[in-house]
Each structure stands twice: as C-alpha cells, then as structure tokens.
Fold each of these.
Amino acid sequence: EERYEEKTPYTVLADGCGALHGALPPMPVSAANLYFTAINNSVAFLTSDTMPLWYNGTIYVPYTVFDASLNGIGVSLGLNASYNRGSNLLTLFNLQQMLVFDLNNGTCRDEITGVVYSARAIMSNGKPYLALNTVCTFFDLEYSYSQLPYIPQGYLVRVKNADAVLDDTSFIDQAQDLIGMRLQEYTQSLSP
C-alpha cells in the first residue's frame, strides 16, 4: 500500500523531485518550509489545509484551487469542480473536457474519450489533492514552482492560464507585500 506524508506547518514530504516542462529545482527538505499558492495574479490564503504537498516526487494541490467558487480568492482558471463524498468521485470540467478521479479505485479518466491516465488523487487534510502536472497538462494550464527570495524556506506554486499577466519573476516581486500579509495571517492563526 502506498503511503504519503501529510504536511503540517512543521513537516514536508521529501521523497523526490517532479518534472515540469523540463526539471523543477530540487525539492526543499527543511522541516519549516512554507508553500504558498498563486492562481494567475493572486495569492491564495495560506492555511495548513491549502498548502501544496509532495507525494512520490510530484506536487499535489487541493482540488479547490481549480474552481473559482472554491479557491477562496475567486480567481477562475476556466474550470469547475464537483466532489461527491459518498461515491468518492471528483470531477474537474469545462465546456469541452471532463476529468474524473475515483479516489476509491485510484483512477483518473477522461470521461469524454474514455482514456485512463496513471495519475490519481490522494486525500490530505480531509480533501482530495490532485497532481498539478496532470491537471495542467490535461486542461492546457501552466504552473511553476519557485523559491521566494524574501522568505527563507518559502516556495510559491503558481497555476496559470492565459489571464496571467506577469511572468513569474515579476509576479513574485510584485506580490511580496501580499505574500508577507498571507504569512502574517497564517502565523497568527497558529497562535492560541
């Protein structure tokens, strides 16, 4: 049985490095890493149950990242998500495509063509997490993974569609205040 390590504010999964249009930088291995999520030109709220995680060398994000009505910042990537806890099926879709993850069977299927993919969803913090590369490739989105120059052990996972205005370097620079604010909110949420 495969196992994965759920991240907490003080632990990270450290078992490899994924691929992203070439190669990702080495995966961080410190026990105090923070993973921020950006969607196009906005930074999502930072909580322990919204942080991306590593599993078998692949970065996973909560499925809620992909749906503007669920991601907490209302930014659309052109996708909708539906998760049925009873059947343990998660569906991501737009007007042309539909990707269904069966968490019970560990499968991922293009519901329109019937093609089955090797990717699977995993559960963490009580919600499904999806392999970022799989979803982005299927729905023609892009993503990046960058170390933040102004937060030691801080990393940004950015998911983008054609609405993203800034390149990653410019975005990281311009989002510094917002990322700092998200970090402060997160730190305060950990204090009793």
Note: The first strand starts at residue 34 and ends at 39.
Amino acid sequence: RGRGMSRGLALTARDGQIALDGHWSWRDGFRVQGDLRGDALSLDWGSVQARGLDGVLALDWRQGGAPRIRSRGPLTLANLDVGVPVTKVRMTVDTDLDQWRFGEIGARLLGGEVRAPKLVWPSREWQPVVLTGIELNQLAALQNEAVVSLTGDVGGYIPLRLLRDSVAVSDGRLANETPLSLALLPASGTQAM
C-alpha cells in the first residue's frame, strides 16, 4: 500500500518562502528533527491551487519508523481553489503520511462558513462538518448552464466518511436560515419539461 495523498500529481511551489531548521544524527540509528516554515506560499497540486499558505510544521523521523509531521499552531491559507473557491482556511495537522488528522478546522465557502472540530483521512468513521450561512445564489452560480435561480441561506451539518479513494455523505441535515426562493430559468433543460 502506497503512502501519501497523491499517486502521481506533482506539487509545485509557485511563490512564497520556505525555511527549514533542524538537525540529524546517526547515533543509535538515523533520526531527523526540524521545523519547516512556510510564508505566503502558493502551491499547485494538479488542478488544485492554494494561495497564501502560512504555518510551521514540525518533523520527527526515526530510522525504521514512519515520519511524524505536525503543525506548531494552526496552518492558515488565504485561498484554496478546488473548483469552488474556499477562503480563510485555518486548521491544525498531524500525520504519519498514512493517516492525516486535521483539527480546529474553519473556512469560508459560498458566502458562509464550514467548521469541524476534527477530520481524519482515511477513516471509516462518520465525521460531522457544520455549515452556516451558505448562500444559495453562489451555489447556483456554479452551474455550467444556469437552470435555476436560488436565493437565501442554508446551514446544518453533513456527516462525512473520508475513505482513501472516496468521500461519502450520509444523513446530513440542512435547513434554511433565511427565506428561500427558487425560480426556473429559460434554458434548454427547463424548456424540454
């Protein structure tokens, strides 16, 4: 079983500063310890673009063991484009490169906010994610061909199961936080009805 999050997508640093401070030793086996600091990093991973990444990662790797990487405080990310713009991302991370544990997660998405106390990937457990103030007009704007017009805000929770190669959602609940409206727009899909 391979380690890591990607099986072939290159991670490319576009901008920013990276500094590494640490030490290594051979006594009683190979060991590396250090801190990796990123300031205003811009990274591309396939079609995913991350801009304005700031934070410090602590590395501890001993001979014969898996490396351990954990954040010293929260990592912050100004913008993340995964097909939907996500901004003001904030979280902690702790990983052995086989399992990733994220904590104190918060981000702005579709005019609202996403929060989770923790998420583990991969995991067979259902993990709650809370959504508040999601603006339906921003969601509708993601359509290739506008078929509906939506207004209003929704919020609620979505339980996620984050498997190695898939994401599942089950028994989530969203409710309107403001009055909602839906209108069908003149488009080829609606005219066929």
Note: Residues 136-140 form the longest helix (5 residues).
Amino acid sequence: GESWLAEGKNAYSRLTPDIFRLKDMRIQYGTPYTWYTSFNYLYRAQKSLGKGNRIEAREILAYTLPHRVLPAVSDEAMYPAWDALDEWWTTATFVPYWSKRQIIASATKDVYASLLVKEAEGKALILCGNWSDESKAVSLQIAFAKLWDTRRVHARTVLGGGVPRLEGDDIRFSLAAKTYALIEVGRAGPK
C-alpha cells in the first residue's frame, strides 16, 4: 500500500498482477489480508493526484478481489462488497487464477478472475477484476467438472458486471473499465 505513494501522479499505473502478488499480497495487515490503499484516502491522494482526486473503491476492488485481499478504503462504496463477501470470505476455499488446478482462466486480456468455492453446497463465487482502461466483453473458462459431478450450472450477478451467459464451460458478461464483478455459479437442478 503506502509504498505506492512514491509513484505520485502515476498512482497505480505501473501496478501489475505479478507485482501485486509479489509485493503487496499477504504482507499487509491482518487476517483476512488488507491492502492499505493510499490513493483512496482523500487527504493522501490530494497530495499526489491533485485536489479532489482519488482512486475510486471500484478500481481498488478490481485489483484486490482476484487475489483474495480486502482493501482498506475510506468510503461507503466498500459496503456492498463486504456484504456480498460476508458468507464466502472465511467459509469457502480460494482457487486463484494462477492455481495449478486450472479450474478458472480468463480469455480476456487484463481481466483476472479467481473463485471462492463451497464444494459441499455446490456453488462458487467468481471474483473478477478488469485492470484495463477499457470496458471488456469478458470470457472466462471454468472447469465445472473439476468442481462438481455435473456440468449443468446456473449463474447470476451478485455485484457489478453484466448479466452472465453460460455456454458450456464458458461464462460471458460485460465489465466496465477499472472495476470488478462478483458472479455466483452453482449446480443446476435436474431438468
């Protein structure tokens, strides 16, 4: 977190997923891990970005959620994300996009997605972040057969993103620039 203040007006422009995993993930504060987001705090951001400017919570969440890191942000924009994650954060298994199990992968440049999985309940929550300055038509591949004994699944948007469309193991939805989506997927009942 705070070390990024040295970037000044560049803010997080040089931040990449690899740098985040190496430098900031799991070395900040507390459990669950919290990232101190200096450019979200108005009094700190004003010094670097100019009066009245700051990096919004939705952008911070795009960076942190696929890494199972909660940001320390200074506005109410976090409340819906906290509420949505409440039933998942400590009771589900985290499956990151870099996992060797290869359960989830993004076919969309600059979009990263990981899973929180509740195998016994037959459901998972996709934590998706768009790191790009452009809106994206997101395409994720999820190996549902590695999670459950069926490929018949349903999907619904919990927060952010467009309405998800399932096509086999692909899930597609729209996602605005520098923002995140939480999408629940689960086993579908018999026809």
Note: The chain is about 20% helix and 30% strand.
Amino acid sequence: CTSLAEEPSEDEASTCPSESDKPKSKRGKATNQVVLKGQNITCYGENFKEFLEAEKEAPILLVTELHLKGAGIRKSRQHAEAHQWRAFMAPATSTGGGARQAAGGGGGFVKNHVQLAQHTLGGSPERGQLPGTGNDWTVIALRMRKATILVAVAYFTCGVGARGVNVVKFNQLRRYLLLDGRPFLLFADWNM
C-alpha cells in the first residue's frame, strides 16, 4: 500500500487493512498472513539503511535498483545482518565507469525468524548463496505452513524494451522458475 520509507496517503490509508481487520488466532496474533513490502529504492543508501533498521511490520522486503556489486553487496549484507535481516542480492549490471558504476540489481531482505526452504536446484540460503541469482535477478524460497513459494525479484534494463539484455534476463529467470517447479511471486522493475 505504501512505499518503504513513507506513511500512506489519505487515499491509501482508506484502502489498506488495519490491524483490527487482520484475522486473529486465540493468542491475538495475525494468522495465515505474510506481509511483503516492495519498492524501487534507486540505491542502497542512507535512507534505505535507516528504514531497514526501523522496519517492524513486514518480515520480507523486496527491492530493485540496489546499484550494488562485489564489495558493495558484501558491505550491505553485513549491515542488514547486524539488524536481524538476511539479505539476498543480485549484482547490478556494470555501466563502465563514472560516479554510478552499476545500474539495476535487486534483492530481498528477510527477517531472521522467517523460515527459508532449501532450493531444489541446490545452494545454501543460510549463507545468502543462492543458485537462483542471475544478472539483475534473485530468487528466495520461503517455507509456508505446508508449502514453499519462490519469491523472485528482478530489474529489467531501462530503455531496451523487450529485447536484448532484457530477454536474456527474462529467459534466465523463466528457466530457473520452470526447472524448480514451485509456485512463485515475481516482483520486478519491468522498464518495458
């Protein structure tokens, strides 16, 4: 209903479910629900770091345009882990230099208490090493009560449309999801 760092507008507030609207168990906790928030964050900067440190409602955050690769991903993962999040990030595409040396990228941030499932194609989710990570996309396997759902996050290059590098990214992700075979949710910055 809202962006990751903002309060809902008056229009959004009227359509967003309130705490009292959520089904409750005998202990008063919400049941059969998982809250996911997603947004294009433009970069993993100070505003997003502050939000990540303060987030209490959603145990799963899906973001695009991290603009990170290599050491930037390692440093951001360490920051997330220091605040009880597991970070799964796809490296951004190199742009060849300048102040912004990478564009795109995507990732998911999952609170430590959320149960992750083993990927059927191998990998170690506990260490943030996913076989389901490609060029600007990543997949997280979330274990729900009796099922596992794959949550994919992808960034498609702006200005290219449905051709070139975007077709390659889409086909890599499509192949991974089809080979795995489990139900999935795809959050993407489509740029098409």
Note: Confidence is low (pLDDT under 50) at residues 1-8, 11-19, 22-26.
